Amino acid sequence: xxxxxxxxxxxxxxxxxxxxxxxxxxxxxxxxxxxxxxxxxxxxxxxxxxxxxxxxxxxxxxxxxxxxxxxxxxxxxxxxxxxxxxxxxxxxxxxxxxxxxxxxxxxxxxxxxxxxxxxxxxxxxxxxxxxxxxxxxxxxxxxxxxxxxxxxxxxxxxxxxxxxxxxxxx
Amino acid sequence: xxxxxxxxxxxxxxxxxxxxxxxxxxxxxxxxxxxxxxxxxxxxxxxxxxxxxxxxxxxxxxxxxxxxxxxxxxxxxxxxxxxxxxxxxxxxxxxxxxxxxxxxxxxxxxxxxxxxxxxxxxxxxxxxxxxxxxxxxxxxxxxxxxxxx
Lengths: 170, 149
Hints:
The complex is a heterodimer of chains A (170) and B (149).
Chain A (H helix, E strand, L loop, with lengths): L2 H23 L2 H17 L1 H4 L5 H22 L8 H8 L6 H15 L2 H12 L4 H8 L3 H25 L3
Chain B lengths: L2 H12 L5 H11 L6 H4 L2 H10 L12 H28 L9 H4 L2 H41 L1
Helix pairs in contact in B: 1-2, 2-4
């Protein structure tokens, strides 16, 4: 497989990999590194790649595993993920930002607080709009478990959002 | 779109029983401006999901794996060769002990005094053995008497 060919295969879903990585790792730099790592791993497996019937699902699962491993090792070494995503958003455009934009970042923060599995299910379903069958394949979960996690995640986001609205805590 | 239909969809949405198409409808609905007050609380969720999908991976990807592969191969074979050379070397290596001469370890004086001490010892030792000769003589005589009896 040539480089151009590889890029053609990878292009359509590389942003999805990045978004999943960012959802799990929170920091955009970490997510970029993770995505790059995954794409390079795929490139080194390019011979085998032709035999996979669903490269996207394979890459998504790889990303998920990679990020979870990353999180585990961070936790083990007691290192907090450093990220500056919230900072610039708040300070740089404080005046310009409309209230609506603000509540969007609330949703993001609420999602960051969710357990990893719920985070992933919500990301895959509500952001990337995967079908349940695809999520089953990607996460290796049972259909009922996915629905339970998804319902819980959605309800938690709703509750916390209402809480923040009524108390005005940012 | 009728309001009660949206309300029903929202309800279904939170029990995770909506289809992808229905969720798309919800997202589109909440991206509009005129959302009734009682549904407004859900708007940030759907708006966020829509905006989250806009994020892009912008880092430049450097696919220089081809040359790296050859170099990786080189290192692999080089390390195998190094290990082979090492084991062969280890196999043929027999340490020849260095002959240590007395002259290397001791000074001339020390050797001389040691020789003197040994000579003294030998002399006294010989004295001892001379005495044993008498003992032999004694035994000869006693055995003479003993056999007589």
